[in-house]
Design goal:
alpha+beta, Double-stranded beta-helix, 6-stranded antiparallel β-sheet, transmembrane helix, membrane
């Protein structure tokens, strides 16, 4: 069993190394157009606790989304599955560039493919997207954040065509080993609108230079690239072991903007599984008791 785990670990590290080296190669070629302008889309957030976003597209405008996120669309919207994110950055290296982009998505646990929705009609058309679990949708105008946002994996929902969806490796080993949500995050780059989904109530905080915020790693949704992200051990042995918050906390240091969520999906799923397991055991004991009563009669 240990040999299997060791082999899997080596395979993952080797794959990451290949991705990083290909990425360096693509950058040295100088064939990537980083100044691609994103499509200008309009949107409306609908709902309160279980939100969806409705995107309005002018003729020939497009939006990209995670596979399975679409809720409904007008008749002139053309839907196409693509390899990569459809940007010049992913198409620049031909098949190798598309493989690089898709490979990066695999590291975050996402599908190799994305879906692009284009308005092929002569008038405005709408397409809407919703997340797979309760929560809120955060619209982000990437131009306001120097063209880049780093977010937790699985949080990206959709974006205007031209926004690049890649990966961000945290350079600090502590984050990789103890981060809870992993050290591989998603990087959204471009000058258009991107939409991120999070659970529960959303809090947006502006950190001043040197200001520090400590939090549960799962409660982090996104941050600007100027924010320093690290993992530190909780103070006090009793608090760490019996406090229920884990041995390690995320530490964010400004300046920059961070978005937090009150109900991470991992926390929600863990509570549901725990209660379901307890409930099935209780039901089993009750049914077993009733069965014994009838058998005794």
């Amino acid at each position: 069993m240990n040999e299997i785990y060791s082999g899997s670990y080596i395979l993952v590290i080797t794959y990451i190394d290949i991705i990083l080296h290909i990425n360096i190669y693509m950058k040295t070629k100088g064939s990537i157009n980083m100044s691609q302008k994103s499509h200008e889309i309009d949107y409306e957030i609908i709902g309160s606790e279980m939100q969806l976003v409705e995107i309005e597209l002018d003729p020939q405008e497009s939006v990209i989304a995670e596979a399975g996120a679409m809720m409904y669309m007008d008749g002139s919207i053309h839907m196409e599955t693509i390899f990569g994110d459809g940007t010049d950055k992913s198409n620049a290296g031909g098949l190798m560039g598309k493989f690089l982009t898709a490979g990066k998505r695999l590291l975050t646990g996402e599908s190799l493919f994305m879906t692009i929705f284009t308005n092929n009609g002569s008038g405005k058309q709408r397409v809407s997207f919703s997340a797979p679990y309760p929560g809120k949708i955060i619209p982000m105008d990437l131009k306001q954040y120097n063209g880049e946002i780093v977010c937790q994996k699985d949080s990206f929902l959709c974006a205007a065509k031209g926004v690049s969806i890649g990966i961000a490796f945290n350079k600090k080993i502590g984050v990789g080993l103890f981060g809870g949500e992993g050290f591989i995050m998603q990087r959204l780059e471009g000058d258009g609108w991107a939409f991120v989904h999070a659970g529960g109530t959303i809090i947006k905080k502006e950190l001043r230079p040197g200001e520090t915020l400590r939090l549960d790693t799962g409660c982090l949704v996104a941050l600007t690239k100027t924010v320093n992200y690290d993992i530190q051990m909780a103070k006090g042995i009793k608090s760490a072991i019996f406090g229920g918050e884990g041995l390690f906390l995320a530490t964010l240091t400004g300046p920059g903007t961070v978005w937090l969520q009150s109900l991470p999906f991992s926390r929600l799923a863990g509570r549901i599984l725990s209660n379901a397991s307890t409930k099935s055991k209780d039901e089993g004991s009750i049914l077993g008791g009733i069965s014994n009563i009838f058998e005794n009669r």
